[in-house]
Every structure is written in structure tokens, then in C-alpha cells.
Amino acid sequence: MLKRINWKGILYGFLWTVCLASVVVLMSFIEVKKASVTCKDVRIIIPGNQNFVERSEIDNILLTAAGPLVGKPLNQINIHQLETALKANPFIEFAKVYGDMNGVIHVKVKQREPVLRIFNIADQDFYIDRNGMKIPTAASFTANVLAANGQITESFNNTVDTLRSKLAKDLFSTALYIERDTLWRDQIEQIYVNNEREIELVPRVGNHKIILGTADSLESKFLNLLMFYKKALPVAGWDAYKTINLKYANQIVCVKNAETENAGANTVKVATKPVKTDSATIKLTTQDTVKN
Fold this sequence. Notes:
Helix content is 32%, strand content 31%. By secondary structure, it is of the alpha+beta class.
């Protein structure tokens, strides 16, 4: 018995062959066209408000990698080589280069975006970008980001690198959390690592330090701090406490300033419990336990 011919499969195969042949012809045409087109201009796009890399530096990278581009045939310009040279710059996260049939070379670069500047115990300083990568500082530009100093041992070899220590990763997580919240971005001025290698926050408003401990349960800790700011400090005064300790679960431990110690206990433990609101789960004071 003769098998039925699969005309549908044959038709699909024929169409795919035609499409593939068309692509090959089109690519051949483009290559021929490129051979007759010379570079007339180089257009560079550097989006964002960071200024680690200026237009002049991009021009120098391109010139070093491939020589003068204007006047050179497009088919003699190694696009991959240009992209590789751009990405070798520690401040460039992404680079895309392509040429069009009008003889224009388009260059688009994305700069790395720092969120924290680290000053370690070896007197090195470097940035941590939004992807958690260590990048160097620039002599011509200083990013307006949080700074962290103190007992930080994370080293830097002046090249783009990943974070090694848990403390450095905690500092990065804390800086990211603060940067994403307008309230804490305005209130927290600096991060400090004390001798116990605990994270402390230095506020812009109030003569106190905030002991965060680690980056565990950041949302809960900052919600506790927010409620303490709203409920306790307006009554006691913004300078009533010298430390606000958030590192313990379900409580805030505060130490009063010397000027207010005689007015009462010098340590206040505030227990908290979750309370539902319209927008989030926050922590409200349920009891005050005074320890003399």
C-alpha cells in the first residue's frame, strides 16, 4: 500500500528554504552595501545623571581601540572590538555599538550606578553599585550616595569585583533599602560599623545613633524605627536618647542621654507587636518596661 504524500510538510519545508535563501541574499546585499559606505559620524548616547564617563573619554576609548572611525568603510570597523573596549572601562556596565546604512556609528553606554561608598580599615575607598559590584572611585566625579566607614575589612583591588564578606553584603542591602525609601534617604546620613562589627546609622535629625546590628529583617526594623519616631520622640524629644537599638526581635532598646538620665531610667525597653494598617504591617508600642 502506497503511503500518502505529506504535501503540507513539503510546503513548509519549501517555504523555510525560500526564507533562508532570502536571508542569505539580504545579508550578502548588506555586506556589499557596507563595503561601499564609509563612516560619516559617530553618535554617542550616555543616559542617566551619573558623570563617571564623559563623551571625551568614550571618544578616546574608541580611538585607541580602532583608530579614527570617520572616513573608514563600515565593513572595516570591528563592532565587537569596540564594545569589548568600552566594557573594559570599570564605570561602564553595558555597551552597544552598531552602524547604519547612512554611515553613522551609534554608541550607547550605560554607566554603573553606585548606591554606597565604602571606606575600609586599610584606608581604601570604593563604591558598591546597584548590582552589588565593587567599583573604583573617580578623580573627576563624586557620587552623591551614602558613605560607610568604621571596622570594615572588605578589601578592594581597584577592579570591578563581587562582595566577599557578609558584612559588606549587609552594608549593601542596608544602603539599597535606605535608597529606595524617600523618608530614610532624607533621614539617614551615614553608616558606621562599630567595634562589635554591628551596623549603626547616623541620622540627619536627632542627636542619637541607631544600632541596626545586621541587615536581617530590615523591613521590620525600619518599621519599628518609624513608629518610635512617630510615637515616642515627639513626647520625649529628639535629643532624649543617645542610642536607639533595633537589633533585638520585637523590641526597641533605648539609652537616654546623660542630660535626661536624672529625670528617669536610663534604659527603656519597648516591646512591639504587629498591627495592620491600610498600607502595611507596622509596629506599635504596647508596653514600656523601665529598667533602672
